[in-house]
Design goal:
Layout: H1 2-6, E1 9-15, E2 18-24, E3 27-29, E4 32-35, E5 41-45, E6 48-54, H2 56-77, H3 83-96, E7 104-111, E8 115-120, E9 126-128, E10 131-135, H4 138-148, H5 155-172, E11 180-186, E12 189-192, H6 195-202
Helix pairs in contact: 4-5
Amino acid sequence: MAEKLKGTTTVGIVCKDGAVLAADKRASLGNMILSKDVTKVFQIDDHLALAGAGNVGDILALVRLLQAETRLYRAKVGREMSVKALATLTANILHGNRLVPYFGWFLIAGYNENPALYSVDMAGGVTEDKFTAAGSGMELAFAVLENEYKDDMTVEEGVKLALKAINIATRRDVFTGDGITLITITKEGYRELSKEEIKALLK
């Protein structure tokens, strides 16, 4: 089970005008590649997203629950849930299920008045970050992020840095690979870059 937890690489970055989430597309079990086209970054609401590293079934179950909860919040309150509130909700769900846990590590990003990024572990521990990574290639990704992240970087610069961090992990981590999913969240909302855009940026 620990191997399921560690596989993949996810990256989150806060920029001055938005947030970026990225992940590879490989799903592995032990030393075997199960799929080469798995989505690990999900839209939760107009300005909210989650990236997950871990057991695919658990990640999908949590995503469905969070999407339902944010829709319910919108209906009751009349506005979108904040990034911090979504991170707190996720932490409460994970902590409440720690005896039968969701096997995953989650990055939550979004934009309300300002962009924000949170890391939530399997037991519900929450950390607010300017940049972070999770999964088996996180050490490689962190080395890139730590060296090149700047507080005043734009989303355009953040996209390039996230791609570089994931790309480095794909070269050296056997559990990471087979393409990249990358999304941005700005005041305009959630946007996923196309395969063609990512390919052009990686050249």
